[in-house]
Amino acid sequence: MSWLQRLLSRKQLESDLDKELRFHFETQVADKIRSGIPENEARRLARLEFGGIDQIKENCRERRGTLWFESFLQDVGYGLRQLRKAPGFTFTAVLTLALGIGANAAIFTLVNAVLLRNLPVVDPKSLVRLGDRADCCQNSGPKSDGSYSMFSTQTYEQLKRTTPEFEELAAMQAGFENRAVVVRRDGSQEAAKPRMGEFISGNYFGMFGLQPAKGRLISDSDDVAGATPVAAMSFATWKNVYGENDSVVGATFWMNTKPVTVIGVAPEGFYGDRMSSTPPDFYLPIATMPDEMGGKGMRDPTQNWLDLIGRVKPGVAVVPLQQKLSAELKRIYAPDPHFSAADIAKVHLVLTAGGAGTQSMQENYASNLKLLMWIAGLVLMIACANIANLLLVRGMQRKAEMSVRTALGAMRTRIVRQLLTESLLLAGIGGLAALAVSYGGARMLLMLAFPGDQHLPISSRPSIEVLGFAVCVALITGVLFGVAPSFIGAKAPPADALRNGTRATAGGASLLQRGLVVLQAALSVVLLVGAGLFSQSLGKLQHTDMKLESKNRYILHINAQAAGYKDQQVNALYRTLEERFHEIPGVVKVGVSTFTPMEGNDDGYGVHLVGQPGIQTSATNIIVNAEYFDSVGTHVLMGRGITAHDTATSPHVAVVNEDFVKALFKPGESPIGHRFSAGDEPAQPYEIVGVVEGTSYTDVRRNGKRPMYFGPLTQPSEAGYAGAIVVETSHPMSDMESTARRTLMEINSNLAIQKFETFDAQIASRFTHERMLSTLMKLFGGLALLLATVGLYGVTSYTVARRTSEIGIRMALGADRTGVVAMILRSALLQTLFGLVIGIPVAFYGVTLVKSQLYELTTVSSDALLMAVAMLLAAACVAGVIPARGAASVDPVRALRSE
Amino acid sequence: MSREALQVQQGSLYPALHRLEYKKLLVAKWQPTETGREAKYYELTARGRAYLKDETENWKRLTDVVGLILKGTVEGIS
Fold it and tell me: Could you tell me what percent of chain A has a pLDDT over 70?
């Protein structure tokens, strides 16, 4: 009979045992009677010879080896009954665990996905990235610190030729805001849609070691000038847009009006070479870029636009390779006239781990996520303190029960084991609930961090390690504080414990309990102050004067290049756009430009004043039409704005912003009439004709720091084609998007809307980070406050329960209700005050650590502090008043009799 | 039983029997006795027999050695 069979056939075994022993006993008795001993005496003798039947039975049961398991099952059953009997305690404990663990698991899930995860490629450890910065999207010229992370096509090819240390060195397009291609499947009736396309070198997929899910992937033979234009599709696009239809492979797609054959589908799970909320839909060979994108740039040896990642051969050391690459880079840049000797001396290249790709998102979110991890840790601490407190209180309450059980003969180990089982059960249930919380929490975090992005390659499934860690913490807390009081309790002689009963006066709760409550209060203050500061910071950011008007403004983006327009055709297009949009009823102003305020992107060039040597500042260039400044609400401060009279044939002019004036002119000096040149090839210098306000274009933090100059749309400039249209209307128009789409279709069916947003939405999306932080801080602060309140309530009500008879006596002797309430409340508030005394300095210290993430706040503001203190005190009052009122409504006679 | 030299209670036989049964050294079956009641009969298995043989030999060796030592000691004392 196996162990399991013995466990399952317990009933049968019991009856067999009984039968067997009884048979033996009865036979003995019968023998004795037969030899003439009277039955009574025979039975007594037989029992003496045989030994105690129940003892023997217990011995036999032990031999089965199943006893420990049976008692474990008993413990579990008993534990569950106990938990059910105290629903308030169980609910609070489970909720505390679920929130504490769940919040942690959710945050760690994101940290894991964003900061720690490698690309889903072969052997990510042997990948190396050239450069250490996530620059976007295209730049040129020397860097002030000499460290390069983006390269031109020519530089890439040169480096690839001279470094046999790499098994493969692949290149990929750096920026992703610029990666939209307009795509329409051949033969389909649908309108052309903007999709993400990334230009890559032919060895890109080979370097990553990827196999196609369908068809084939791009190879070196596709990446040569004159090759048939091809593309590989991402698995997500194949699945979501084309329903995993096999006919996609080999089909022709019109990309930016050029025919391209899709040759295959990238493997499932591959989201490109970086974590991004806009992963590529199509991968295209670099060599076909001039054809598909048109315009200037990508073959230009001075234009850096590629990120490089390589797979090093086994045994290659990083440091010598880095030196070799830096030397090579110096040699490449040396003949470039833009580089001075000093610039060349500084040129160097830093190799970084390439396993996680180019990591721009990691850089953006690292500091936020680290902060959130700290905060989640604090919340977990508070939760653990709460659990500890609840279990301590419960343990003390059950002292009498334990004493009775000890008195009835239960072994101490058995009692401790039973309490242990109960704690484990509680932690187990809490852990399960935490699983749900962490899943929901991670989803919520994703939505907060990346609103409106369905394509983000991050799963909200919590990772095993994370949950394991959190559950371990919960288990340790539960076991430690669930069993400790019973150990202490079980030591006392049961008679003493029983005699002591419930008579207790002041000091009902132990120092440990009070200490835990103080700790919770202190941590809550820290988190509440943090929440207050972050929401203040967000408020300040959002209410900064961005020097623009966003009411009733809509912004849409098009790509004229992608629609097939050439240099000599765009001016006509701009005119048509202005005319057609003005024909829409309700439209007041139509602005056309390269970039719009708070769009988060710009294009900088070196600027120097005519008559003064050298580059004097870097400034952003935007080309605009006549109505642009009015359409975005930028006011002209001096001179004039751009007008309809500035045409291709009129003098070359520019309007500059106040920061430009501040950077290049002495205070009080009028810039009007001065001339400056910018970039590489100014056909003629600009003449400054006006000054406008310093409207925020990328980040309000940069307000007042970014020099800008605005040229007329129709005059030659450094900027490419204008792609932004700002429409100001006289009243809100909810159907603006469809109206705009119709209008564009009428002009040219290849003009697709790449992005449509209200001006307000565009501005709001610049604060996603800050809003996420502020929302999460509020959530965590609230959570901490809730947990601390529960903790304080638990301790106070425990005290009240312990002091019921004392309160009865006081009231019998004439104490009034208010006196009793005040007495209870005083002790609750005292603990909170202690918490404040500890927490406030910690909060001040904490702020110095997160200063960099706050806007215009360097220390704890009095508002945030007052708010936090007020909230905590209010919570303490609530947590104190409920049990205190209960105490005051005690009937003295009943209280005295309750012993 | 063992000439009453060992004062063991009869009941303590059963835990031992059960243990041997779980170790598959004994098999047990219920059979009717002459009086018609059912009784549990134990029997050595092949493994049990081999085990018994081994242990008996071990015991013999042990007692032989102990006897030898005692013999030497007794001679030394006298």
Answer: 91
CA distance linking residue A21 with residue A16, whole number of Å: 9
Which ipTM was obtained for this model?
Answer: 0.81
Within 10 A of B40 (CB to CB), how many other CB atoms are there? 18
What does A108-130 look like in DSSP terms, one character per residue?
HHHHIIIIIPPPSSS-GGGEEEE
**CA–CA distance, A274 with A294 (Å, rounded to integer):** 26
Q: In the structure encoding, which two tokens stand for residue A375, read together?
A: 């905060």
Joined tokens for residue A747: 């002009």
Residue A647 to residues A457, A560, A639, Cα–Cα distance (Å): 47, 20, 18
Nearest to A51 among B11, B21, B40 (CB): B11
Q: Are A249 and A263 in contact (CB under 8 A)?
A: yes
Condensed to tens digits (0 to 9), the pLDDT of residues A409-436 reads 777 777 778 888 888 888 888 888 888 8
Nearest Cα to Cα of residue A593 among A462, A725, A500, A786: A725
Size of interface A-B (CB pairs under 8 A): 50
Instruction: Provide the residue ranges of all domains of chain B, joining segments of one domain with +.
Output: 1-44, 46-78
- Which residue carries 């840790």 as its tokens? A377
Of A773, A772, A794, the residue nearest A95 (C-alpha): A794
Contacts of A669 (CB under 8 A, 6+ apart): none
E strand residue ranges, A730-779: 755-758
Beta bridge partners of A151: A306
Q: Does A33 touch chain B (CB under 8 A)?
A: no
CATH class of the region B1-44: mainly alpha
Evaluate whether A491 touches A134 at the Cβ level (below 8 Å): no
pLDDT in tens, A320-363: 999 999 999 999 988 887 788 888 888 888 888 887 776 666 66
**What six digits make up the tokens of A335?**
């003949």
User: Is the CB of B9 less than 8 angstroms away from the CB of A24?
Assistant: no
The chain-wide mean pLDDT, for chain A, equals: 83
Residues 6+ apart with CB under 8 A from A501: A400, A899
- Alpha-carbon gap: A75 to the closest alpha carbon of chain B (Å): 26
In A288-411, which residue ranges form alpha helices assigned H by DSSP? 289-293, 318-333, 341-346, 360-397, 399-407
Neighbours of A69 (CB within 10 A): 12
Residue type, A154: Q
Q: How many CB atoms lie within 10 A of CB A364?
A: 15
| CB of B11 less than 8 A from some CB of A | yes
Give the mean model confidence (pLDDT) for residues A798-826: 82
A420-441: b or e for each residue (b if 16 or more CB lie within 10 Å)?
A: bbbbbbbbbbbbebbbebbbeb
Closest by CA to A690, choosing from A662, A711, A704, is A711
- Report the C-alpha gap between A218 and A701 in whole angstroms: 42
User: A63, B38: Cβ pair inside 8 Å?
Assistant: no
Q: Using CA atoms, how far apart are residues A514 and A886, in angstroms rounded to an integer? A: 20
Dump strand ranges (E) for A511-586. Answer: 553-557
Confidence bin at A710 (pLDDT 50/70/90): very high
Q: Does the beta carbon of B15 lie under 8 angstroms from any beta carbon of chain A? A: yes
Please spell the DSSP secondary structure of A54-90, one letter per residue.
HHHHHHHHHHHT-HHHHHHHHHHHHHHHHHHH-HHHH
